[in-house]
């Protein structure tokens, strides 16, 4: 496993019918318990940080996250992923996305995500193609988003049932196929009913909306893209929906709210108790919600499937572990 790069890991997960969870780290002390839980369940996951998590929470910087990852990483069970780097952020501000991606590559991130989903389609294609060129030159895969996975914006969401019934913001399957071909993106984040957890100070402690997924729509996207698909906003989606999505193209599942809120509930009282809560929650997610305990062995044994674009072929050296 330690010799496989992140692109190969997701390709093998897709071939094996399993999923790689991406656990977001808004507070640096959360990282160690996540890695330990993945090790103890013999499962594989990505340790992820998004720009908003060093801007609006306490992960400090992408370099600080990389340094902590270097201290606790286990190459048999983890890789380091740069999550959402928006072109236009949740506050409608323009972001120096190329500069952030370049910093992440320099810091040793093993996959990156560019999010041009707030742009018109042509702009999303152009920005994603630029980042794919940067990432592939460094030998790492790139994720992009097409469609509107809502939830990070300030203010209330429109009524969820109205969104779901109308398909508003859903990823268009035909556009998705063309997007993958035109950009060379390795993984595609899609909108099929999923929503992000709220991050505003006024709403971040709220119980996350119980979303569901249009799996038939997801299947059409998978048929037209033939790359590993990503589901953001995994917290709160019923287990049958999640498992059905994994059978129909989802190879990476982002999880943030489910581990952030238990940490935040206890951190003022006791950081060790907060860290234990994160560990317990990750074990529960792996064993009881995703049914992926032991999937590191499955991924190691699986043969990759063909994807819509050339795979990343550069292997990464295992990180030095310090447990």
Strand arrangement within the widest β-sheet reads 1-2-3-4-5-6-7-8
- Determine the mean pLDDT: 87
How many domains, as an integer?
1
Just name the CATH architecture: Alpha-Beta Barrel
Helix content: 40-55%
Total helices: the number is 13
- Model regions low in confidence, pLDDT < 50 over at least 5 residues: 307-323
Question: What is the CA-CA span between the terminal residues?
Answer: 18 Å
Q: Which term fits the overall shape? A: globular
Find the count of extended strands (DSSP E, 2+ residues): 8
Strand content: 5-15%
Determine and state the CATH class. Alpha Beta
> Measured on Cα atoms, how large is the radius of gyration?
18 Å
Largest sheet, strands/sense/barrel: 8 strands, parallel, barrel
* Class from helix and strand fractions: alpha/beta
Order of helices and strands: HEHEHHEHEHEHHEHEHEHHH
Q: What fold name goes in the CATH topology slot?
A: TIM Barrel
Q: How would you portray this structure in words?
A:
With 323 residues, this protein is of the alpha/beta class. The protein has a single domain (6-301), classed as Aldolase class I (TIM Barrel, Alpha-Beta Barrel), CATH 3.20.20.70. The chain has 13 helices and eight strands. It has helices at 6-16, 31-40, 51-55, 62-72, 97-107, 121-137, 160-166, 173-183, 215-225, 239-247, 257-266, 271-289, 295-301; strands spanning 20-24, 45-49, 78-86, 111-115, 142-146, 187-190, 229-231, 250-255. Strands 1-2-3-4-5-6-7-8 form an eight-stranded parallel beta barrel, surrounded by nine helices. Helix 5 links the parallel strand 3 and strand 4. The protein is globular and about 45 Å long. The two termini are 18 Å apart. Residues 307-323 have low confidence and may be disordered.
């Amino acid at each position: 496993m330690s010799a496989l790069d992140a692109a190969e890991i997701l390709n093998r997960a897709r071939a094996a019918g399993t999923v790689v969870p991406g656990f977001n780290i808004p507070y640096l002390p959360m990282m160690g318990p996540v890695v330990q839980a993945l090790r103890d369940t013999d499962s594989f996951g990505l340790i992820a940080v998004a720009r908003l998590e060093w801007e609006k929470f306490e992960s400090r910087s992408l370099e600080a996250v990389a340094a902590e990852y270097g201290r606790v990483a286990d190459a048999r069970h983890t890789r380091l992923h740069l999550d959402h780097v928006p072109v236009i952020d949740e506050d409608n501000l323009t972001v120096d996305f190329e500069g952030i991606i370049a910093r992440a590559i320099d810091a040793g991130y093993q996959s990156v995500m560019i999010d041009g989903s707030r742009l018109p389609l042509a702009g999303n294609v152009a920005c994603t193609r630029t980042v794919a060129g940067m990432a592939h030159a460094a030998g790492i895969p790139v994720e992009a988003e097409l469609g509107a996975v809502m939830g990070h914006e300030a203010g209330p969401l429109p009524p969820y049932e109205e969104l779901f019934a109308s398909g508003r913001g859903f990823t268009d399957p035909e556009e998705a196929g063309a997007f993958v071909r035109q950009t060379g993106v390795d993984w595609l984040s899609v909108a099929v009913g999923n929503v992000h957890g709220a991050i505003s100070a006024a709403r971040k402690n709220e119980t996350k909306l119980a979303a569901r997924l249009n799996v038939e729509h997801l299947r059409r996207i998978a048929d037209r893209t033939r790359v590993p698909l990503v589901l953001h906003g995994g917290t709160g989606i019923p287990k049958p929906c999640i498992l059905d999505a994994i059978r129909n193209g989802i190879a990476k599942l982002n999880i943030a709210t489910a581990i952030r809120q238990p940490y935040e509930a206890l951190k003022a009282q006791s950081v060790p108790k907060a860290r234990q809560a994160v560990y317990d929650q990750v074990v529960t997610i792996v064993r009881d919600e995703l049914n992926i305990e032991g999937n590191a062995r499955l991924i190691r044994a699986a043969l990759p499937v063909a994807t819509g674009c050339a795979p990343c072929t550069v292997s990464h050296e295992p990180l030095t572990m310090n447990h």
